[in-house]
Amino acid sequence: MIPDHLDVGLSILFIGFNPSITSGETGHHYAYKGNRFWRILERSGLTPRLYDAQEDGELLKLGYGFTNIVARPTRGMEDITKEEYAEGRQILRQKLEKYRPDIACFVGKGVYTQYSKRAKVQWGFQDDPVVKEIQEFVAPSSSGLVRMSMDEIVAIYSQLADFVAEKNRED
């Protein structure tokens, strides 16, 4: 199993489908070499430098946490069962209610549709959050399989960086 990185007072909780086999073996989020997550965070301005998957716990210091809707590592999301999604939805909601991050960032539209049970969603901030007072943000998956350019993906994640920077100015 891969540990969650959770704490009260997070700016952003990044929520994935489930860990890759590589992440399961290493115990770190977004560890598969083809995953672009860490480069996206740096290029969007969310992190001051390029972090490595082995440093995922260090991002708690920046106010960022990690979890997944399903905890079991698989080769692909098609290996996740309906029962695992149903259980994961409940567990994720409990985590959100307990830790209350400013933003729940769903890394992939499919993660959000599984969680919210909404059929159509757009990139970015969502109206009518499932857990009130927690902003919900849908970002593209960082998988190398995504058919969007890196620039398009970074532009969407940059909205998060802008939000965090604005909130930090207000505090």
Which features does this protein show?
171 residues; alpha/beta; Uracil-DNA Glycosylase, subunit E; five-stranded mixed sheet; 36% helix; TDG/mug DNA glycosylase family protein; DNA repair; DNA damage; EC 3.2.2.-
Order of helices and strands: EHHEHEHEEH
Strands of the widest sheet, in order across it, are 2-1-3-5-4
| Unreliable stretches | none
Average pLDDT level = 93
Helicity, as a percent range: 25-40%
What is the correct CATH architecture? 3-Layer(aba) Sandwich
Discrete helix count: 5
Protein name: TDG/mug DNA glycosylase family protein
Domain Uracil-DNA glycosylase-like: 4-149
Enzyme class: hydrolase
EC number: 3.2.2.-
Description:
This is TDG/mug DNA glycosylase family protein. Its EC number is 3.2.2.-. Keywords: DNA damage, DNA repair, Glycosidase, Hydrolase. One of its GO terms (molecular function) is hydrolase activity, acting on glycosyl bonds. The chain has a single domain, classed as Uracil-DNA glycosylase-like domain (Uracil-DNA Glycosylase, subunit E, 3-Layer(aba) Sandwich), CATH 3.40.470.10. 36% of the residues lie in helices and 13% in strands. The protein is built from five helices and five strands. The chain is globular.
